[in-house]
Amino acid sequence: MKPVHRYSRLPTLAAAACLFANLAAAATCVAPTPTTLGLPLAVSFATTRTAPPSVDCKGAAPTVGQSFEGTVVEVLDGRTLCVAQGPAASDWVLVRLAGAPLATTRQTLMAASFARTLTCVAARGMQAGVEARCAVDGAPLDRVIGTNEARLQGLAWR
Q: How far is CA 53 from CA 60, 78, 153, in A?
C-alpha cells in the first residue's frame, strides 16, 4: 500500500471550502497551498466567481439638456457607466448611453471609456441616473464603441 502524505488532501479540501464559502458572496478565492503553508509541494487551486457590478453611482442626475463632464470610474454593462463629478461615490452620476448599440459588451465599453474623461449632455431623466449622449476625445462614444477597433480592444479586457 502506498503511504499517503498527511497533507496530500489539503489543497483540495481548502479549495472546496473556499468555493462553498463564496457561493453567496461573489469573489475571487485562492485556496492555501502547501507552499504557502511552508510545505514542500507546490500545488494551488483557485476558484473565480464573477462579481455582479456594484452600483455606487449615487450622485444627483443632471437635468435634461444640461452638459456635464467627468471621468468614467465604473462600467456596469455595455451601455451603463458611472461618471465621477467628485471623489466620493455620492458625486458619481449613473449614465446610460443614448444611442449605444444594444450588442455592445462591457469589455468594449471598458476599453473605450474607463478612466477617460467624458463630455455628456443629458438627454432623458431616468429613475436612477440619466440617459445621455457622451463624447470621448471629441468623438461620440456610441460611435466609438461601434467600431471594430473598440471591439478588438475589448477582447483584451477580462
A: 20, 12, 21
* Partners of 117 in beta bridges: 71
pTM of full prediction above 0.85: no
Q: Which residues of the chain have pLDDT under 50?
A: 4-53
Residues in the chain: 158
What does the H/E/C string look like for the chain? CCCCCCCCCHHHHHHHHHHHHCCCCCCEEECCCCCCCCCCCCCCCEEECCCCCCCCCCCCCCCCCCEEEEEEEEECCCCEEEEECCCCHHHEEEEEECCCCCCCCHHHHHHHHCCCEEEEEEEEECCCCEEEEEEECCEEHHHHCCCHHHHHHHCCCC
67-154: CATH number:
2.40.50.90
Task: Specify the pLDDT at position 1.
Answer: 52
Ordered by start, the domain boundaries in the chain are 10-48, 67-154
What's the rounded Cα separation, in Å, for the pair 113 and 153? Answer: 11
Cell numbers found for residue 61: 442626475
